[in-house]
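Q: I have four molecules that I believe assemble together. Could you output structure tokens for the complex as a whole instead of separate predictions?
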Amino acid sequence: MSLVKVAVLTGGGDCPGLNAVIRAIVRRSEQRHLEVMGIRDGWEGLVEERHERLTRQRVSGILHLGGTILGTSRFNPFAIEDGPERVMRTLQRHNVGAVIAIGGDGTLSIAREMHALGVSIVGVPKTIDNDLGGTDYTFGFDTAVSIATEAIDRLHSTAEAHQRVIVVEVMGRHVGWIAAYAGLAGGADAILVPERPARIEEVIEHVERRRKEGRKFSIIVCAEGAMVDLGEGAKLISRGRDEWGHERLGGVAQSVAHAIEKRTGIETRVTVLGYVQRGGSPTASDRVLGTRYGVMAADLVASKRWGTMAALRGNEIVAVPLADATRSLKQLDPRIYDVASVFFG
Amino acid sequence: MSLVKVAVLTGGGDCPGLNAVIRAIVRRSEQRHLEVMGIRDGWEGLVEERHERLTRQRVSGILHLGGTILGTSRFNPFAIEDGPERVMRTLQRHNVGAVIAIGGDGTLSIAREMHALGVSIVGVPKTIDNDLGGTDYTFGFDTAVSIATEAIDRLHSTAEAHQRVIVVEVMGRHVGWIAAYAGLAGGADAILVPERPARIEEVIEHVERRRKEGRKFSIIVCAEGAMVDLGEGAKLISRGRDEWGHERLGGVAQSVAHAIEKRTGIETRVTVLGYVQRGGSPTASDRVLGTRYGVMAADLVASKRWGTMAALRGNEIVAVPLADATRSLKQLDPRIYDVASVFFG
Amino acid sequence: MSLVKVAVLTGGGDCPGLNAVIRAIVRRSEQRHLEVMGIRDGWEGLVEERHERLTRQRVSGILHLGGTILGTSRFNPFAIEDGPERVMRTLQRHNVGAVIAIGGDGTLSIAREMHALGVSIVGVPKTIDNDLGGTDYTFGFDTAVSIATEAIDRLHSTAEAHQRVIVVEVMGRHVGWIAAYAGLAGGADAILVPERPARIEEVIEHVERRRKEGRKFSIIVCAEGAMVDLGEGAKLISRGRDEWGHERLGGVAQSVAHAIEKRTGIETRVTVLGYVQRGGSPTASDRVLGTRYGVMAADLVASKRWGTMAALRGNEIVAVPLADATRSLKQLDPRIYDVASVFFG
Amino acid sequence: MSLVKVAVLTGGGDCPGLNAVIRAIVRRSEQRHLEVMGIRDGWEGLVEERHERLTRQRVSGILHLGGTILGTSRFNPFAIEDGPERVMRTLQRHNVGAVIAIGGDGTLSIAREMHALGVSIVGVPKTIDNDLGGTDYTFGFDTAVSIATEAIDRLHSTAEAHQRVIVVEVMGRHVGWIAAYAGLAGGADAILVPERPARIEEVIEHVERRRKEGRKFSIIVCAEGAMVDLGEGAKLISRGRDEWGHERLGGVAQSVAHAIEKRTGIETRVTVLGYVQRGGSPTASDRVLGTRYGVMAADLVASKRWGTMAALRGNEIVAVPLADATRSLKQLDPRIYDVASVFFG
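A: Yes, here they are, computed for all four components at once.
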């Protein structure tokens, strides 16, 4: 009896915990008599036939490493001519019986479409931002929150020593999960997120109230995609673009900071955390979650539950349809924001 | 209308996140028009009348600190004459309308009995070991797992450089939650816990299998209360006592290490993590959880839900009867152990 | 016999280790029978008479905290009318026999001038950037390098997963110490500093050479004040200003990144570390150095060595004239840059 | 012209920063037209002919890793018959023109003897404990101090919450460098080292003085080889051995703790940090130092300065005779201990 061969790929933005998933898939597959082929650079590797055998030795010592040993890309086979056909040809040529796609919105949408074309596929959800449906949390989010929180802790001491306001921009173009969690954990005096458009006046009130109590320093946590009404002329701000057409670094945060400084007279500074939030060693919690997902993904292949993905519900790892992940953006739980707002100002 | 006065105490072993709970209680109480009195050193402070007013200023800047600003003790008022009466006298004398007890098995049992005597009381569950019923997780556990995992990461490099076996003992006298999570996150080659008595032969098999594949080093994670059958004469080992009658430091781990070294001839060393696991700054996740509990506890007081405690169920904070926490020890989820065992040997 | 009263102030930008210095001054002063008065917000507090008694209790538990319990400012008494006179009046009115000024270029220059006016003063050098003369290193620098290195470690995994170039901007407007040390420790593929004007072509060569060897990712570390000749039209870039007249966030790094992307076609991203580098808990090494400085400063007061400051020479703490600190900018040791350049490309 | 081939080995206990040295040797050797051969497991690999080619690719990505990619052992070729001859035969057979030995007392003594036998050899000093002569500091020490300090920070919060004394044992069998630095950085209330035999009464006095000021908790830092006179019967304690003949875990610390608890009645606990101090990622400072040593070692080979080793003097990397390292144990600088003692009690 020949082994079933499983192709594994990671797509989209990198995320701490990807290597934990890959390692777990390989180790569990060994137990379930599956052979694992690692695809390079997401879906691109399936079109371009870039891959390597993944053995136990190959995945030894990678559990704690950030990034992905397979590389990643945002390549979409449906965006090129013959893309899906080329993917299927690769799978046939290498005698691949199943695909495990680890990724976010984009990757899992492609997986769903591939499944509709008849490919035997299962998924593992991945999102730093925690905005995927179908699952309570995914790996990477806890790491991003931890890194952002540690930065906020550091900024607190400098804000206090200088009696300044610091506006810190964290990841989250469409949702405020990281901002809310890191803001809660870091003791933010205001948190700006996409889900709750805020007026700059409210933020200024928090800053002023603190000043009246003798604390001139404040920490404002701001998601990249925060919606803030700056008043004067009343438009919500967006990130803006620089002279080369790139999105402006810290666009929202800088607009907010400028408005606060102008109105309160308190020195206000901006820090943009950027890519450090998605790099480096995953937290213990993300390694455990990634590992549980990886074991489940191999089990889903072994039991041929095509078109499903591993998901976390409460404390359990369950299988849900791939479509659940991508149906709609999972917005910030309003109860979390409400808890955070107890501490504003 | 005079404010209701709430007494807050922390009892039992310290736990990262206690200050997050206290701060949240104070901030939420302010919104709910409750006044907060901090009791020193757990129940002892209610008997001895040691307390202080807790204001917003007093709890400013404590969110990220380990320990508890209130101090703690293992004092039990039911163990001394007139204890419960003295507690109630203190409450009356200071016009205290409600008590929030933050603690584990011991503290919450006392709370339950006090409630039976008519005291208006609510609880917040606290356990490093994650062995309390009624709640999925509590604050402090994630921090302990993180610290243990970081230590295991460090031990890996020294074990590999020297081709040694290292047995690392983590907290867990009665349950294996920390051992299983930290072992999973740290990539342990075997995990020994109280819930799954193991024979030393199995551990040795894992070590030998790795040696055959060219890896002479292994990491064995061992809970303090792990049950291991050492074979020869067949008794399960316990911690033992030293010449002064104290429990032996690393008793179980040392017995395991000695057996491995003797049988395999591979140099084997012991590390006992001890108190570092429960000290210091809580993880972001524990700060969020502690804060959510604290807000809920103040809400339970405001809505007079006496005899209940804040608990985590899935992603929600709910109220459960105090008795749920202490009914029975919450043992390690066998599914977690099964995932971990995929990676043994 | 009445105690001599010593006034302690911290001026300029905050710096991890300031609290270690303050604590050491207080503890050593107690042994030398000196009384310590803490001045709020640098020289401003001496003009405005804002101060507090510093006792052993007051400085207990601050050793590991970032910032400064005394607050800081960039206030210069020589810049206002009667400034120096008001300082001296405050000193007399409160019977202050000596001043310990902890600060950088600005603070120590003022100290030197005050000394020239007859004030009994000693100094402690402080600079994140390591650009003060008279001393080999000061506290804060090691912490800044550590934080930057940890960030570079994280960026490495994301750069590798995505096969990108990441340009990371670290502190250093006038000198490249942090860039060189963090670049060395983080394994940077090129380091841009003020002391060694570079042509963008060299950087691009390093990136290209790596690509030829199969590594499309590179990490470029760039000091805020790096001198880079972008070619086309041949001007050295500076930070630039945004629409509100503030210095542009990551101005140099963005220009460099844009040029690399345009010329190599490799996706290039920017991260600006900013204020996180100067906040938070000091490293063990900075705590030791700050403590040694503080003990020395109290000893300098006790032995009336006015006009001197504590300094590190090799492994020894010595006294040097205040003027040594401010005579000229201490530029990056070229041997360090040369070692770093072994690893370029 | 054929390249000169250099053999590199790491011997003795592992130490964070070893990989930084190896990487730097390889990169600098490439520039100096030297070829590098990595020897496995210290001197043993030269006898057993276990080695591998070290290329730029092989040492890519190892800068931040703990341990040593070459493995290490305590093997001494002079302790076996024909050992030195076999070493020399290996060198000849593989056409090795020079050896770089990275190690401590043992490894460098062997290097010195090999040099006396005519082998072209240079050294790099390595010691966690900082007890080697000829150099101010070596890599690994800063990392060990950092890890110990972080642990002491954590223990502080638990000691304070429970009003306990905690005795923490750190590395240092013969010298007190780690104890003194970590004790200073961690704010220890007493530090016990081999170089300054102490009476238990002094320690108890510190604990009692703190209690009188209202602080029942204390942190005592204790080197493994601390000399403490326990009074009653007046013997200095040593580590002792357990029932299997191994040195007792935390022997000195436990004796000290028992004596304190017995005499003061304050609950006293022990933590033994053990192997975590020498494992894991090196600090930025140790990576810089290791890298500077590695570059220097390759330069010493290129300039044929046999019988010397790289050493740190002040801020410079210099060459000193190999014999300088091993002439005598470098004891703790008494000025450091004196600074630390300002904070006792």
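A: One point stands out. The two ends of chain B are 67 Å apart (CA to CA).
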